[in-house]
UniProtKB/TrEMBL annotation, chain B:
Taxonomic placement: Bacteria, Pseudomonadati, Bacteroidota, Flavobacteriia, Flavobacteriales
Top-level taxon of origin: Bacteria
Regions that span the bilayer: none
Example GO BP: phosphorelay signal transduction system
Statement: the UniProt record of this protein carries the keyword Phosphoprotein: yes
Database matches in PANTHER family: RESPONSE REGULATORY DOMAIN-CONTAINING PROTEIN, STRESS RESPONSE REGULATOR PROTEIN 1
Domain Response regulatory: 4-118
Entry-linked Pfam families: Response_reg
Entry keywords, A to Z: Phosphoprotein
InterPro entries: Bact_response_regulator, CheY-like_superfamily, Sig_transdc_resp-reg_receiver
Gene3D superfamilies: 3.40.50.2300
Designated name of the protein: Response regulator
Length: 265, 121
């Protein structure tokens, strides 16, 4: 309702926040998890470089064991990409295990130097020819972006990825901290606002502003900045409402994207 | 022995990030979520560098900086703040801070500035 409210021209959002909020190829679930199993560092590097964008999270494994554990723990997988000779069992045996024992039904690409096709009863969607070129990665991207409508992404993990070199545990913990700490502070804001303690509202807004910035949610950060430095008494109520509304939307998207993660409530 | 950094910051996400990055860079990190805790920690142990926010519970960042510069003049201080307001930055420098980093920090910039500040000690 209040999304288009004009904010002060004085706002200077940190350069790190200057990211597009909408990706036209977004999926219904905004973050796509790609498990990449290949011990070849060059292959990992090329693959990661290609998918180093909003909405893709590549989780690398040097052997299939880590990926099996990931799937066992019911963590999210949108597509699994595995080298034909992935250790310790190779792609075929790994996929057999995943399908028979873990009832894995996800889409799979196998990376191969010489094969054009793989057994379809293994659930293989396609083959990525090695050595890789970027056209091969487009196949994965096309699968992940098909049959979906554009959805506005309210956050991005780019900053957290950059900070941690893609450390998934760190990213998950940071998202959990975001959800555990921002909501109570917004509740506190509403409480102090009821007693017209505008200074306390401003301080709380100042405190949570970096949390929005770190997930590159520009609107949340702008609202916090306004509340912290520019708001007049008459402004506070509607801006706190806007901030809460933004938070609720972000939280909904985060919970949706990380819904299968065991440690995210 | 690793250099020891005291982080005075009350945003848990920022704390987590600073701890992660600084530990990765090989430093020991101790966190104080407010000024009172920071003063207590300073009286209990030696620190090679202090990274502090300017808006903190109980005691303001500038009061902390004044305290540090009086009691521990040899410990360099880098201010971490969301504020881009010139007067606040100027005041912090007047109090003797060694550097200023805006949150959310650029990971490489943080590494470089910490390294550079410690090299001066």
């Amino acid at each position: 309702m209040l999304r288009n409210k004009r904010l002060s021209p004085n706002f200077k959002i940190n350069e790190l926040s200057r990211k597009p909020k909408t990706n036209p190829t977004n999926l219904n679930s905004t973050l796509k998890h790609i498990l990449f199993i290949d011990a070849d560092r060059d292959a990992q590097s090329l693959f990661n470089e290609h998918f180093d964008r909003d909405n893709f999270l590549v989780i690398n494994f040097n052997s299939a064991m880590g990926a099996i554990q990931h799937i066992k723990e019911s963590k999210p997988v949108d597509v699994l990409v595995i080298d034909e000779f992935a250790k310790p069992m190779g792609a075929a045996q790994t996929l057999n295990y995943l399908i028979d024992e873990l009832h894995f039904k996800g889409k799979v690409f196998v990376c191969s130097v010489d094969k054009e096709q793989f057994e379809t009863d293994l659930g293989v969607y396609g083959v990525l020819k090695k050595p890789f070129d970027r056209d091969e990665f487009e196949k994965v991207e096309a699968l992940l972006t098909e049959k979906n409508t554009a959805v506005e992404s309210l956050y991005s993990l780019d900053y957290l990825k950059e900070l941690s070199d893609g450390d998934l545990v760190f990213i998950e913990q940071s998202i959990q901290i975001f959800m555990d700490t921002v909501a109570p502070r917004i509740e506190e804001m509403k409480k102090v606002l009821a007693s017209k303690d505008y200074q306390a509202v401003a301080e709380l807004a100042h405190n949570i502003k970096p949390s929005f910035e770190m997930i590159l949610n520009t609107r949340g950060a702008e609202l916090c900045n306004f509340l912290a430095h520019h708001a007049k008494p008459a402004d506070f109520k509607s801006y706190v409402e806007d901030l809460e509304e933004e938070y609720v939307q972000v939280e909904k998207q985060l919970k949706n994207d990380f819904s299968q993660e065991q440690n995210l409530s | 022995m690793n250099r020891k950094i005291l982080v005075i910051e009350d945003n848990p996400m920022v704390v987590k990030s600073l701890e992660f990055k600084l530990k990765k860079d090989g430093y020991d990190v101790v966190v104080a979520e407010d000024g009172r805790t920071a003063m207590k920690l300073l009286s209990e142990g030696h620190f090679d560098l202090i990274l502090t926010d300017l808006m903190l519970p109980f005691i303001s960042g500038n009061e902390i900086i004044e305290f540090i510069k009086t009691e521990y003049p040899n410990i360099p201080v880098i201010v971490l703040s969301t504020s881009t307001q010139e007067d606040i930055i100027t005041e912090a420098f007047t109090l003797g801070v060694d550097d200023f980093i805006t949150k959310p920090f650029s990971p490489n910039e943080l590494s470089l500035r910490v390294k550079r500040t410690l090299a001066k000690v």
